[in-house]
Write a structure and sequence with these properties.
There is one protein chain. By secondary structure, the chain is α+β, with helices and mostly antiparallel strands. It folds into two domains: 427 residues, no CATH class; 34 residues. 27% of the residues lie in helices and 25% in strands. The strands form seven sheets. Strands 6-5-4-2-7-14-15-17 form an eight-stranded mixed beta sheet. 48% of the residues are buried. The N terminus is likely disordered. The structure holds zinc ion. The site of zinc ion has 3 residues, from loops.
């Protein structure tokens, strides 16, 4: 079911404390209208951009389970940020936020958007908040110690994100914009593999045998179960005097890793952000500072671990095995991506003004229900009192039982967005989306290039296609996948439809 949000024109707001139903009535569909002055309306429209970062590093002593390569967190290699870019076409505004987090919950994104609307007037459907999926960071649902009244990470996070957007908004200045597509095919690997005939069986979530193996070993591989998306889609904004303001990119890579134990880090995403600023010649002392941003494209089944089929390995011959120092691999990937983006950046066509339009829909999905076999298996694991390791398939038994419970809500509402920035489009999806879904979207989008951003405006688990569900593998297991098996089909159709609507509007 698709529910369009109310199509009403936004009114100038003198009382910024409007909330609840009144706020909903003010939400515009398509145009995210800012307060247009009647005097300025007659003048040539001015395009403006502003960017800022906000530190969102959790307190390392507050939650022992902050995700690091080995918990607890005792070190912070680099601070985590919400990286915020605000664009303004003199009529509509768009806020793009990428947070150095594993996930962003829909609730936190929504509360941040409420504050953003109160402080900047930008309505929620014109605000995109996503997570990079760095694996060495907090999620948003840290297990807060309730006795520590001062520490509520969710509230802190929503506030810090909103602050970043407000500061970017306060820094809006006349700007030029351009976009492009680079390619870096050497750093993305589909992590789901068909094994060679005669390989040992691959066991699934309830001791069933599956067709593909997620993150298998290096030997005995036949072919990957899906494609990768090698594109790095990016947009770049600079002041009218040529000073770089921000560059935002999206690449379909899960994360890189190789980070010291017990350490919080934003992974390659932040290293790219830093490196691309350096290559663009952003002066470290410029005011306000340049903001680089790397979002996660569609990488649910894509990682940075080099895996090749046995056939390919024979062709390649013995490979020099490089031993990476901590952080070295992440930096290498970041630098490669930044180099590729810079190469494409040389030939960009700059625009003095582009129009911004946005659409948001709420899609209602049925949730996953376990099969009879899965429930029987889960009951037996429970009866045998197996103490599962968190990574073993037995770890899913309590999830299976939870999903079998009638107390779990039968449906899940998720927010999807499309934004048009001149002739660039952005699609925002609240899942860890498989690469082939992103590729299909790019292929069907009437506006190109298309920048796909996953783990956006919420995070509701992996999103495989129905065909990938049939093959099995970790990402298809109930719990890590939460929605009906054909959810990807519904989501892609909805997004293509929305992109079509944006395309039909006069640019
Ligand atoms: Zn992950």
């Amino acid at each position: 079911m698709t529910t369009p949000d109310s199509p009403l024109i936004r009114l100038p707001k003198s009382n910024v404390k409007l909330l609840g139903t009144t706020r909903r009535l003010l939400i515009a569909s398509g145009l995210c209208l800012a307060f247009a002055s009647p005097i300025l309306a007659a003048a040539e429209p001015v395009f403006r951009a502003g960017a800022a970062t906000s530190v969102i590093t959790p307190s390392i002593s507050a939650d022992l389970k902050v995700r690091t390569s080995r918990p607890p967190a005792t070190h912070v290699h680099d601070e985590l940020h919400a990286r915020c870019l605000v664009l303004d076409d003199d009529q509509a505004k768009l806020a793009l936020v990428v947070c150095d987090l594993r996930h962003i919950s829909a609730e936190v994104a929504e509360s941040a958007k409420q504050i953003i609307e109160m402080t900047t007037g930008i309505p929620p459907q014109c605000v995109l908040i996503s997570a990079t999926h760095t694996h060495t960071s907090g999620g948003v649902s840290l297990d807060e110690d309730k006795s520590l009244a001062y520490y509520d990470y969710r509230a802190f996070l929503a506030r810090r994100i909103a602050d970043g957007v407000l500061r970017a908004h306060n820094q809006l200045e006349p700007a030029q914009i351009a976009w492009g597509v680079a390619e870096e095919p050497t750093q993305v690997f589909n992590r789901r593999w068909f094994l060679k005939p005669g390989s040992p069986p691959v066991y699934g979530a309830h001791d069933n045998v599956e067709v593909v193996d997620t993150n298998p070993g290096y030997k005995g591989l036949m072919k990957p179960a899906g494609p990768v998306d090698p594109q790095i889609t990016f947009l770049s904004v600079r002041s009218t005097s040529g000073k770089p303001i921000s560059l935002m990119a999206a690449y379909g890579l899960h994360y890189v890793g190789g980070i010291t134990p017990n350490t919080i880090s934003a992974d390659y995403f932040a290293m790219f952000a830093d490196r691309v600023g350096e290559l663009l010649g952003a002066d470290r002392h410029q005011d306000p500072p340049f903001v680089g941003i790397m979002a996660n494209g569609t990488s649910g089944d894509v990682n940075n671990l080099e895996r090749y089929s046995d056939e390919e390995l024979t062709k390649r011959g013995p490979q020099p095995k490089k031993k990476y120092q901590p952080f070295e691999k992440a930096r290498e990937v970041a630098n490669l991506c930044a180099d590729k983006v810079m190469e494409a950046h040389k030939t960009l066509q700059w625009h003095d003004h582009v129009k911004l339009t946005s659409l948001q829909r709420t899609l209602t999905f049925e949730r996953r229900y376990p099969t009879k076999e899965e429930v029987a298996w889960a009951e037996s694991v429970k009866a045998r009192r197996i103490k599962p390791m968190s990574t073993s398939r037995y770890s899913t038994y309590s999830t299976v039982l939870a999903y079998a419970s009638p107390e779990m809500p039968p449906t899940l509402d998720v927010v999807v967005q499309t934004h048009r920035i001149g002739d660039l489009a952005v699609a925002a999806m609240p899942f860890e989306v498989f690469a082939e879904i992103g590729l299909e979207l790019k292929q069907r989008s009437p506006i190109r290039p298309l920048m796909n951003i996953s783990i956006a405006n919420g995070s509701h688990g992996y999103l495989p296609t129905p065909a990938q569900h049939k093959l099995g593998g970790y990402e298809t297991w109930i719990g890590v996948n939460k929605v009906q098996l054909n959810a990807s089909v519904k989501m892609v159709d909805a997004l293509v439809n929305m992109l079509g609507e944006l395309h039909a509007k006069k640019p």
